């Protein structure tokens, strides 16, 4: 039977406009204690999900293990769903040229930059959708650079049978502690491997708590360069910059993974795939995980607008301020 993510889903957040609840976002969330035990769960923590771009830090660990040798902002870009701002594109280009490759070697799906201003400038210059400006180009540049370092072919690096993708699959299974039961194609064209929500949290805990080796390098890069992980105005950058030691990565269709240096970890899946409640739910989950509630609460504020002004908010259905919000 095909796993159904809707089974067991519960309210994670309510959208309040004025004095009324306008809509409700259902889903699943799990919070792990430093010892890996489930501290808190809503819905089904073992639900099978496509972690989408939340899986990028795990993919980056696989690349480092396979021979990629970058750190700092370049490694942060490998983990990123970037806005396509100029500084993001510059780092992607450096990843490629450092491996003796070019933009022409990218095989990710061409798209406009995510950032509206960057997209406007790109189009105003008469340019078309490009693989460079698509938000996963850092990951793809890292994959290509890994292939170059190992002497692997680059034309077929997106084939699930390619040695790079086999290494990624093995690393996903290892760090999540969950066998990969399903494989498909992500929006960018790369192979995508399934896991469970608790498995995703477990993988983030591994990255955040690591003190040496590839996982520690990934954690260090994301902590030191949160802007490169996402960009201007993005909640992944705000949480990464605002919460000391946090490793956090958003994913399409309502997914988030995050962890603190002590190994406390969070993973969530919004059932309808919406990004709207993710920040509010993540903030509440991090508070349950042990982060300072006074720090994370403002990072999760998501106003509901009327005529351009706040007239309500997205309110988490759990956590220390669920009733007070």
TrEMBL record:
Q: Which Pfam family name is an example for this entry?
A: Asparaginase_II
| Name of the protein in its database record | L-asparaginase II
Q: Which InterPro entries match?
A: Asparaginase_II
């Amino acid at each position: 039977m095909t796993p159904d993510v809707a089974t067991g889903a519960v309210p994670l957040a309510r959208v309040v406009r004025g004095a009324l609840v306008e809509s409700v976002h259902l889903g699943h969330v799990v919070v792990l204690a430093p010892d890996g035990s489930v501290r808190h769960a809503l819905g089904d923590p073992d639900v099978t999900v496509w972690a989408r771009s939340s899986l990028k830090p795990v993919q980056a660990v696989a690349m480092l293990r396979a021979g990629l040798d970058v750190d700092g902002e370049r490694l942060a870009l490998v983990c990123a769903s970037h806005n396509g701002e100029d500084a993001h594109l510059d780092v992607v280009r450096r990843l490629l040229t450092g491996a003796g490759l070019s933009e022409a070697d990218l095989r990710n799906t061409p798209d406009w930059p995510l950032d509206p201003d960057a997209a406007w400038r790109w189009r105003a210059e008469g340019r078309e959708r490009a693989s460079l400006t698509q938000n996963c180009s850092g990951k793809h540049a890292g994959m290509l650079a890994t292939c170059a370092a190992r002497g692997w072919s680059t034309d077929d690096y997106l084939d699930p049978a390619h040695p790079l993708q086999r290494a990624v699959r093995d690393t996903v299974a290892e760090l999540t502690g969950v066998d990969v039961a399903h494989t498909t194609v992500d929006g960018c064209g790369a192979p995508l491997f399934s896991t469970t929500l608790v498995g995703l949290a477990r993988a983030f805990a591994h990255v955040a708590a690591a003190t040496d080796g590839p996982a520690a390098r990934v954690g260090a890069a994301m902590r030191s360069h949160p802007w490169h992980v996402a960009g201007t105005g993005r909640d992944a950058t705000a949480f990464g910059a605002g919460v000391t030691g946090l490793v956090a990565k958003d994913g399409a269709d309502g997914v988030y993974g995050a962890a603190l240096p002590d190994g406390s970890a969070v993973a969530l899946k919004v059932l309808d795939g919406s990004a709207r409640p993710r920040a509010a739910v993540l903030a509440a989950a991090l508070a349950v995980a042990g982060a300072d509630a006074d720090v994370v609460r403002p990072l999760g504020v998501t106003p509901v607008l009327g005529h351009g002004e706040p007239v309500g908010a997205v309110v988490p259905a759990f956590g220390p301020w669920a009733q007070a919000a």
